[in-house]
Protein: TrfA
Organism: Pollutimonas subterranea
Amino acid sequence: MTSSTRLPFHRDNNLLRLSAAMQRAQQKATEAVAAAAEKQAVTPTALILPGLNETVRAIPNYIARSAIFAPVRRGWRTLHDDTVFLEGSKILLKGSGKQLSEDHADIWMHAMYLQTTALLGEAPIINRADFLRGMGRPTGGSAYEWLHDGMKDLARFTLCIEARRKDGSVKYSYGNHPSTRVLAMIGGFDYDETSGSYTIYADPRWAQIFSNREYALVDWTKRLLMRHDLSKSLQRLIGTSADIKQKYSLDILKQRAQYTGRMRDFRTSLERSLTELEALKVIAEPRIETATRGHQQAVWIRLGR
């Protein structure tokens, strides 16, 4: 016959009280994070991004590394519902809406650049023709329709994002708790048909995501010269790391590109884009090789920004 050992009654109560106190503290910490997030959502915040100018755009590292934007074909696009795009000890990034393309990335980066030119508390107003010219696009009926559809897609795509510091504490958390709103890629826009101008609204919480220089700088001049969407996607990825020599497995690059075809077809597209990036002096010495563990990987040397 076995006998069980129990802690003295008063010690059992102490453990219960300690557990309850810890749960209350955790709940209060969660509520404090949520309250801070909501305050950020309604408080005008200047979007100041060092290194940004007319020839350079910026994108937060977590967004740039993920497949939120991908070199997908025009037409039918996957409809995401709380899809996990990045997950790790420091980040949880989920998105909902139609899959965004590299065209959407161009519109978004240019719109966020315009936010940096506006006065605190004001939304930038820009003529649609000027907006298109800023992206190296033609103007006219179909181009205006393309821009308007892209704006709507960005306003409808929402994020749930939570980032943590090295010690595990929450840096920011938007949309992951019931008391915090999801974060739209673009907070909304108004279009004035008389003047042909957009007023673009951005959620103030983007300033937190861009903070501490946690963003990649994108050479806008070179981006506008790229003919292949996969080149644009790789340009964003390259900018997220300060490493001179960079390596990525083909499986990871294929998944990030949302490419569902055969690997040999993806490899052909990848080689073409690596050649284009080399010609534009974004990278040097690109190649595809077999890693020591036997998988195929792309390797290149990062140049400049």
